[in-house]
UniProtKB/TrEMBL annotation:
UniProt family annotation: Belongs to the dus family.
Function: Catalyzes the synthesis of 5,6-dihydrouridine (D), a modified base found in the D-loop of most tRNAs, via the reduction of the C5-C6 double bond in target uridines.
Enzyme class of the recorded protein, top EC level: oxidoreductase
Enzyme Commission designation: 1.3.1.-
UniProtKB keywords: Flavoprotein, FMN, Oxidoreductase, tRNA processing
Record's protein name: tRNA-dihydrouridine synthase
Cofactor(s) annotated in UniProt: FMN
Keyword Oxidoreductase: yes
Highest rank taxon of the organism: Bacteria
Domain DUS-like FMN-binding: 21-252
InterPro entries the record matches: DUS-like_FMN-bd (IPR035587), DUS_fam (IPR001269)
Length: 327
């Protein structure tokens, strides 16, 4: 395996260590980002996917998608764009929000997103995609990146040409989720495919998909040759994963928190109460618990008790009972 870089520099942005939190709908909000920042090990964070059309009208003091703590840096805002006309107002808003970078969603398979011509649909309409991406590059000096999948079917030459086109348009780095469009998460990621694509690029590439341990991280880097890693569900189920990878893979002198898992859970709930509006807390807690509970032998009991809770207070009571009985 090649010698690992401790820092990736794109324009004026330094990502150190090169470990990123993925943009995940309903999960990559302020409370989770702060929890992971406390746990350590991440060099950059991404927001949830934001609709460029709605973004200029969103209130960043109340929208759970935009609420941000001043210590969250660097923070990359991911947007899904349907037309070049949406770019100007969206980029202007991101400048006002002091974004550290802009990421373009080219991999979302949601039917509504595809129907409107965004996400993975842009990968099949290069002319339209080029108009949007060129407009974004023209409008900002911030680092611009994109997150993609491997396609409907893996066709190396076609995907390599598409990614080289992204680089030629001025994108500063790229994240590749190593699965085909529509493949479920249980499908083993195709990390080797990332290596094929990276050969034709000079910009940094982050590998995403199937990383739940330091062993996974090492195998991914070895097979993909990627410059960095993007963690998704693995960072939700094990919030200390970034710190473990930073220490054991990138040899960073970082202290791994030895707090009990219950303490991590309740810290997350505390951050939800501090940062998100009351009506947004229970849903986010349920989503987090769905993944976090997998770290327990009988975690389904925790997930079910929280999922069936009608209020945030009841969810906390049920979680406390589970942890008390799990000692």
């Amino acid at each position: 395996m090649k010698k690992l870089s401790q820092t990736i520099t794109v324009r004026n942005l330094k990502i150190s260590p090169p470990v990123a939190l993925a943009p995940m709908v309903g999960l990559s909000h302020c409370a989770l980002r702060l929890l992971l920042r406390e746990q350590g090990g991440f060099g950059v964070f991404f927001t949830e996917m934001l609709a460029a059309k709605r973004l200029p009208h969103e209130n960043d003091t109340i929208s759970p998608l935009l609420i941000r703590d001043r210590i969250e840096k660097p923070l990359i805002y991911q947007i899904v764009v349907f037309s070049p006309e949406q770019v100007g107002p969206a980029v202007e808003k991101l400048h006002l929000l002091r974004a550290d970078g802009i990421d373009i969603n080219l991999g979302c398979p949601a039917p509504m997103v595809k129907k409107q011509g965004g996400g993975i649909s842009l990968c099949n309409d290069i002319h339209h995609a080029n108009k949007i991406l060129s407009e974004i590059r023209r409008r900002t000096q911030l680092p611009v990146s994109a997150k993609i999948r491997l396609g409907v079917e893996y066709r190396r030459e076609k995907l390599s040409a598409f990614c080289k086109n992204l680089e030629d348009l001025g994108l500063d780095y790229l994240t590749i989720h190593a699965r085909l469009n529509g493949e479920k998460f249980c499908r083993k990621p195709r990390w080797n495919a990332i290596a094929d694509i990276k050969k034709g690029l000079s910009i940094p590439v982050f590998a995403n998909g199937g990383i739940f341990s330091t062993e996974d991280a090492l195998r991914c880097l070895e097979q993909s040759g990627a410059d960095g890693l993007m963690l998704g569900r693995g960072a939700v189920s094990r919030p200390w994963l970034g710190a473990e990878i930073s220490r054991d893979v990138y040899n960073r002198p970082i202290e791994i928190h030895t707090d009990s898992r219950s303490k991590v859970f309740f810290r997350f709930a505390e951050l939800l109460e501090k940062k998100l509006p009351p009506e947004r807390r229970l849903g986010r807690l349920k989503q987090f618990t769905h993944y976090f509970a997998t770290t327990y032998s009988f975690g389904h009991s925790l997930a079910t008790s929280v999922q069936n809770s009608p209020t945030f207070r009841m969810a906390m009571k049920n979680a406390a009972e589970f942890f008390e009985n799990s000692q």
